[in-house]
Specification:
The chain has 15 helices and 21 strands. The protein has 532 residues and is of the alpha/beta class. The chain has a 9-stranded mixed sheet with strand order 8-6-5-10-2-11-14-3-15, with helices on both faces.
């Protein structure tokens, strides 16, 4: 269809555009978030990897961020691959405007495509405004870490995995601290420590150093564990789990032995948790596009997926522990003046719609992810559930607004008024979701998000563009003559495709407008997201 036919070409054009602004023009101002505070707030941003919404109920600490905070029920990523999604967060722009299409530089993505944007991320704006900034964990796919590694502008501390992060045990971690190690730029071996635990300790250390090196000044801390992403190159029958939990969270009767008989699943007995209970698991796909349709899952496959689901739940226990540890390091004064933001770069599927392991679809399990924001204790009390459509392109403006910093408008808008419990007139009506099918033969290291090539796995979706409204999902696929359409009010798990629905004509127009928004001569993306 016309919207997706030239999607890869559009990405290539965006990648070639010379950025007129090399950095964010910013200044401390009377932003909505700063107006009622004597001190500019601290901001802690937890960004996990591949966490689907079905894992949140097993995370007590993270779920608890909703108390006197905000829970977004309709938060969507712009692209469900790691690198394009993170680029949207850093820049506040959709993938067709960042030019970051995939995870690999040889395929129109990765660090090679993102590097030109480093001078215009939220870190630069916050750093210029006097924030002490720190980044920990996973950065951008294919970011190189040689001796004397490059630290992107805007970051005062830089603790980024240099390889092996997906394994959680066999990694190296940079240790750049502007005030202490700027000349040496150390690179530390893992020493066998579970990576999520190490990031938690380094986050605590960052908070303590910020008090010492920048007393009285606010900080921005981003903690980005690899969990619950799978290991790279995992195969059925491997001794090490495909999704590797911390050793303490593994079953007691396995080596290395954990602390609970069936492992730690956050309260429920892991043995009683069944992946087959997930909505749309192994559902009839005869109504779906050709790339989705397949025979029912076999008993052996379901057994593997059941183990994977339990291990993913076990993995996020260490994330829950990490969040608790970091928040516990805040002083009473810091708790009164700190925003805590938690989300994922994308979701994940395990058997829904007979799809095996992956995340590249426009279905909710892949693109609709948790977003929770704990407000400062001095702010408005009470729990807020936000049903306005939010996207990861909004985080850039949100962080700047929290800090009282002004920056130039981009594709997203600040969520701060929504976080504070206000209704915002003229909010967007539609979310844009994009996907460029990665080239499996592109040169370079293996893509950590590559679809499983062997049967019985599905081949992965072709390139597509999609619109998600409060009650509908509409998708156009490259090479598919008919669109995909779901009434998500009547069919919340996208089980009954209705491509001939009368609404598809109007949504096709909306998608055509959104897919090119923000380009020279085109409508801006905020206006394009209005249905009225």
């Amino acid at each position: 269809m016309s919207v997706v036919r030239d999607l890869r070409r559009v990405m290539a054009v965006a990648l070639a555009v010379v950025l007129v602004m090399g950095s964010v023009a910013s200044q401390a101002g009377a932003g909505a978030g700063a107006a009622g505070m004597k001190k500019r707030p601290n901001i802690i941003f937890f960004l996990v990897d591949d966490m689907s919404a079905d894992l949140l109920p097993y995370m007590d600490v993270v779920s608890g961020l909703a108390k006197n905070g905000a829970t977004f029920s309709d938060y969507y990523v712009s692209n469900s691959l790691c690198c394009p999604s993170r680029a949207s967060m850093f820049t506040g722009q959709f993938p067709h405007n960042t030019g970051v299409a995939t995870n690999k530089g040889s395929d129109g993505g990765g660090y090679q495509a993102f590097e030109k944007h480093e001078g215009r991320t939220y870190a630069v704006a916050l750093d210029q405004a006097g924030y002490r900034t720190g980044y920990l964990g996973k950065y951008i796919n294919e970011y190189p870490v040689p001796a004397g590694y490059h630290v992107p502008v805007g970051w005062d501390e830089w603790h980024v995995a240099a390889g092996g992060g997906y394994s959680e045990f066999k990694y190296q971690l940079t240790r750049y601290i502007k005030e202490e190690t700027a000349q040496d730029k150390p690179l530390d071996p893992s020493g066998g420590k579970y990576l999520t635990d190490e990031l938690g300790q380094r986050a605590v250390d960052f908070i303590e150093r910020s008090r010492r090196h920048a007393p009285g000044e606010p900080f921005f801390l981003q903690v980005s564990p690899f969990s619950p992403h799978s290991r790279i190159g995992a195969k059925t029958g491997d001794k090490e789990p495909r999704f590797p939990p911390a050793r303490r969270d593994r079953p007691k009767n396995q080596f290395p032995a954990g602390e609970f008989p069936h492992g730690d699943c956050g309260g429920p007995d892991c043995a009683g948790i069944d992946v087959a209970a997930l909505p749309a698991f192994d559902e009839d796909t005869s109504d779906k596009p050709s790339w989705v349709r397949r025979e029912p899952l076999g008993a052996g496959v379901i057994k593997e997926l059941r183990k994977d689901f339990r291990d993913r739940i076990r993995m996020v226990q260490s994330v829950d522990d990490m969040v608790e540890r970091v928040l516990g390091a805040l002083s009473a004064e810091e708790q009164r003046n700190t925003y805590v933001v938690f989300t994922s770069d994308n979701g994940f599927h395990l058997g829904q719609h007979r799809l095996l392991r992956g995340k590249s679809t426009a279905y909710d399990h892949d693109v609709r992810v948790p977003l929770l924001v704990k407000r400062p204790a001095v702010g408005r009390p009470g729990d807020v559930t936000v049903d306005a459509i939010a996207q990861n392109v909004d985080l850039f403006a949100t962080f700047l607004d929290m800090a009282g910093v002004r920056g130039e408008p981009r594709d997203g808008r600040s969520l701060l008024r929504l976080i504070e419990g206000h209704k915002v007139k003229g909010w967007r009506d539609a979310a844009l979701i994009e996907h460029v099918k990665p080239d499996p033969d592109a040169p370079g290291e293996p893509d950590p998000d590559a679809e499983e090539p062997q049967a019985p796995a599905n081949p992965g979706p072709p390139s597509y563009a999609a619109v998600r409204t409060a009650g509908e999902l509409y998708v156009e696929y490259e090479g598919e003559a008919r669109p995909e359409y779901y009434d998500t009010v009547a069919d919340p798990h996208q089980e009954t495709n209705d491509p001939a629905n009368a609404r598809t004509g109007e949504l096709a127009t909306v998608l055509d407008r959104l897919a090119g928004c923000g380009k020279p001569g085109a409508v801006d993306c905020w206006s394009a997201a209005q249905l009225g």
